[in-house]
Amino acid sequence: MKEIAERSGTKIGSLYRFFPTKELVADALMQLYADELELRWQAIIAKAATATTEQLADILLGEYVSMRKKYPAMLTLAEHGARGSVHRQEGRARNIDGILRALRAHAPHLKSAEAKSIAIVMVYNMRAMMALTCDPFAPNAPGAVRELKVSARAYLRQRLKSKSDVMR
Q1: For residue range 2-46, what is the model confidence (pLDDT) as tens digits?
Q2: Cβ of 72: how many Cβ atoms within 10 Å?
Q3: I need a labelling partner for 111 at 20 to 30 A (CA). Which of 19, 20, 143, 149 fits?
Q4: How many whole angstroms separate alpha carbon 151 and alpha carbon 132?
Q5: What are the sequence ranges of the domains in the chain?
C-alpha cells in the first residue's frame, strides 16, 4: 500500500479508506485489467474482419506479450492472489471468448464448437509466445519466435479456410 500511495501521490490513509485489505486492492486491479482486456478484444475483433489470416495470427500472438509488458503484475495477481484461481479461470474464459469472437469475425463460416477448439489451440500458442519473449528462464533459441509465428500462421490458414476455398 505504501508503494501505491507513493506512486499515486496519495496519502496512505486515503487508500485504506477505499481498500482496507490487500485482497480488495488485488480485486480492483484485476477488474481494471479485465476492463482493459475487453477493450483490447473489441479492437482486435474489429480488425479481424478485414485482416489477412497471417495478420490475425500475428495480432493474436502479440496480444499476451503486449498485455504482459503493459501490466507486469497482472499474471502474478491472477496466479497468486487470494482469489487467484478465480481470477485465472475468469481470465482464461475471457481470452478464449475474445479469440473465438475474433476468429468468427475473420471467418464467419466457422461453427462455434470449431472456433472454440481453434481458440484454445491459439491460447497455447499465445502463451508460448509470451514465454519466449517475456520469461528469461523458458527454453529458447535464436529463431524460435519466428518459428512459432510461421506455425501459428500456417495453422490458422489451414483451419480458417472456407469450404469454397478447399474446393478451388
Answers
A1: 666 676 677 777 767 777 777 777 777 778 888 988 999 999 999
A2: 10
A3: 149
A4: 14
A5: 21-161
